[in-house]
Write a structure and sequence with these properties.
Layout (H helix, E strand, L loop, with lengths): L1 E11 L4 E8 L2 E2 L21 H13 L1 E13 L1 E2 L2 E2 L3 E13 L2 H4 L7 E5 L1
Antiparallel strand pairs: 1-2, 1-3, 1-4, 4-7, 5-6, 7-8
């Protein structure tokens, strides 16, 4: 499976305010394989609703923030030398808990994701 145009979006709150965006370079994933992607989605200033601001302040005080992560990519397959058409891949992972202290920022919990290819 080959991935092209891979984009990551970090969203917060019910209004899904977009806090960060990142791209990953195209890559090939071998059959029956898990591929780790190291992506740095740097937070940026973003307007949020009053409710989301209150929730964010509460989460910051607790030392961790739960966000949603969306991934979009164009993918294609090669089977027996034949290349497939391009498909759209969308993944949604929630909640991704981000630690705000140096100690908790080093660890990461596994998060289930819903994936659709169309």
């Amino acid at each position: 499976m080959r991935y092209e145009e891979v984009e990551f979006f970090v969203l917060y709150g019910e209004s899904e305010a977009q806090l960060a965006v990142a791209d990953a370079p195209p890559f090939r994933q071998p059959r029956r394989n898990e591929t780790r992607l190291d992506v740095r989605a740097v937070a940026r200033a973003a307007p949020v609703t009053e409710r989301a601001a209150r929730e964010l302040e509460h989460d910051q005080a607790a030392g961790e923030v739960a966000v949603d992560v969306r991934v979009r990519a164009r993918v294609w397959f090669r089977v027996g030398g034949v290349r497939s058409r391009r498909y759209s891949l969308q993944a949604f992972c929630s909640p991704v808990v981000v630690g705000l202290t140096p100690a908790s920022a080093r660890e990461f919990r596994e998060v289930p994701c819903d994936v659709a290819i169309s």
